[in-house]
Predict the structure.
Amino acid sequence: MFLQLKRFYLAFCLLLCGIVAYAQDAKTVKQLAALKQQDNLAEWLYVRIDYANANPQQQAFLLTTQQQTWRRPKTTEEQVAWLTLLSSQGYNWLLSGDILQSISSYEDAYSYFRRYKVVQFDVVEYVLKPLGNNYTRLGDYERAIYIQQKTINSLDEKDNADNIASLYSNMAISYYNMGRYDAADQSVAKGIKLVKDAQVRFSLTNTLADILVQENELKPAEILLNKNIATQKNTNKETAYGLMGSYTTLGNIHLQINSLNKAQSEFNAALLLIAKYYPGDRLREKAYLTALLGKIYRLQHQPQKALSQFNTALQILRVNTSQSTSNIYGENKLVEIFHEKALTYLQLNQPELALENMRYALLATDKIRKEFADNKTKERLQQEGKELAEEAIEVAYSLFAKSADNKYLDLILEISEQTKARTLADDIQKTYHDLAASKSDTTLRKKLAIERAIAYNERLLMTEKNTAQYQKKIDALKFDLALLNKKYREVNTGVVSSTAQLLAASLPNVHVVEVFFGVRYVYVIDMKNKTVTNINRIPNALQFREQLTRFMDTYYRNGPAAMTNSPKMFYQASHAIYAALFKNIALQKKEKLCIVPDDVLGYLSFDGLVTDDKYQPAPSLWPYLIRKVSTTYAFSLNTLVENKTYNHNQSGFSGLFVTHDAANDKPIIAVKNEASAIEKLVKGEYLYDEEVNTASFFNAFQNSSALHISTHAYLSGANKEPTLDFGKEKLFLFELLAKANKPKLVVLSACRTADGELAKGEGIISLSRGFIAIGTAATISGLWNVNDDAVAHIVANMYAGLAGGQSSGTALHNAKLAWLNSSQTSDALYMPYYWDSLVLMGVDEPAQLQAANNWPLATKLFVTFWVVLVVLASAIILQKERITGVKTYRF
């Protein structure tokens, strides 16, 4: 939609150019025609730039210059003129308030500069500095800091002290917006040490005040700003912008402490500076200040005046939702304006209009994230947008409660999906796009080469001692990748599917339960027969989050002791969670259930939840959820939609087994038993110990319908990077790169392969997620440190089901049930810690495995029976463990 709008706008500009040509003086028209006749491209470009600067109201004249040129630049002089055009267009877009288009122009200029190495052009002043500031305005702080540091490194400190000090001021803004206040303070200190120019010092002081505001040190910030303003004796066009910033920050301070009249005065002072010194320019700042005055009216309970201000702000930013939502673009200020407008409609008791404007705000947020290059940046935006999504869901929920209109239930699902695994869906979409692209696409080849280089340097960062040099390389490569990805941003829209598409993608006869975890409430969305049937709202979300975290820490993350020593307490705690989540949700016996978790619920396997409050001492008889339904999981419905579209053509099985502990070369007996049991059931390629490495892994990955990995797994380094241990080698999450062929199912028979850091609004960054990101339809992985013998038994039974044609989710479900229905050496072994670690994430389909032989069915069942007995033999080890704990674990 944004691409279509952009094309429409350019076409409109071309038409407008034809109309305004009459307004251009005859001398300019004649001069341009003559220069074109002379093939004097450089001078022709400068004439257009000069004319646009002298006539800022004719913006389209400058912005459509490329469409009017008759050839590309050839000489150095022409290349300098071309760069001047691109940077002028970037500045023009900035003044008009369109940050995304401004960034695009500056990025084009920087790419052109690097390609042709036009050293005669001052790229620092006219491209790098404004580009870094634009990244900050957009909220892409990682790229902002990278480009700011790169600019500082390119300048000589002796000759450019004030330039560098100004850049440190900008860098501090990026840091404090990321919450890195120490780094922000350090940047300001570096700038103050260098600064000579009074205006740069003024800017640094403003930035220091902004940092104090972010740290809630409002009074010191106010004193600092008032002193700063007092130093401005003679205001002019050069100094007015910084002064405007001081008044704006002062106004925000007074707004926070509810001194509304003072805030109003400061904002009006800032607006007067824009009117006097930048008439027709600084539209973004003008719109923001206009909206802040609207916020004051809202807080003063003058909603009509507030709405008038917000509508004026939208007009300044060229947005008119009464005509079409297609003119909404990615801009932080737009998000704030729509949000404020929604709050005003709530004040007027018009929830429908409030909800509509909240959705506009979410749409603007979506269009911002599309421009972000780094996943960490996207994840941060996802977190910031989640509170807005919760407000929208609350309004929709109240409207449903009043009207019983199911359209609000559908809307809640759609908004919930806007907050879930969006970066993962982007990665899946990017994977398929890259694989489908032409092999002759040179840009794509460069992009893939950079991705491989990033993975290589990230590996060195994890494994080598001198890490600073690798981090610098990674930052540079990521920036290069972002520039190359510009061409693909318009292809990978990242737009959430409509409710109809999401529900249509659901498998038939699957009961779906999706959870949205907010700050105030938890919403449990119940879907059946491709219809949203009910919403269960759980109050006190933060308290429920603490309850879940305490439950997981007590009974799973710290081993089985608490569960086995206090079974009744576990039983009651488990049932309390089940009762809260499934209140008013009717689960039918033997139906398939798909859970789309959120927040800390991603660490929980639902199979082991207790469904009845009547405690009985024998865990083998406990009413676990698994006895009622077969459960699988998904990061989001959108990711299911994305991955279901891909046809996995591979067949066959590959198994990678590390049967010895590399640290002491002791055999891991359970892994040997697991491998032996699977080999008797499934035909395929089996690799052991020294044969298992990254090369054999990627070969197996590309040539299997199902890939089984049985080894150690853990979280590495300060960033807790999910890691598979192949003995002499390690495989990190970031090394999972897209391949043309991939398995339908990856089984990660190891500890914590579904575990990882929680990115709020995105999900758990795990190995399981990494395989889904590169197109694997489904993974089976472990949430906590598994018991080797229990897992070996369950995995063997699961493969018996897979070889018999069962879907992966059904096979895992039946294997867990077989454990519960079998005789164990201790009652403790019936508790969920032992049998419930493995979960299926993704599409629940058959893996198309071939049985190890073609014997008759009766013979197969006979062999399966003896295989299970072999696996059960390994459980003898558990006789010594009983209730006090577990000794044999795969960490």
About this structure: The longest strand covers residues 531-539. DSSP finds 36 helices and 18 strands in the chain.
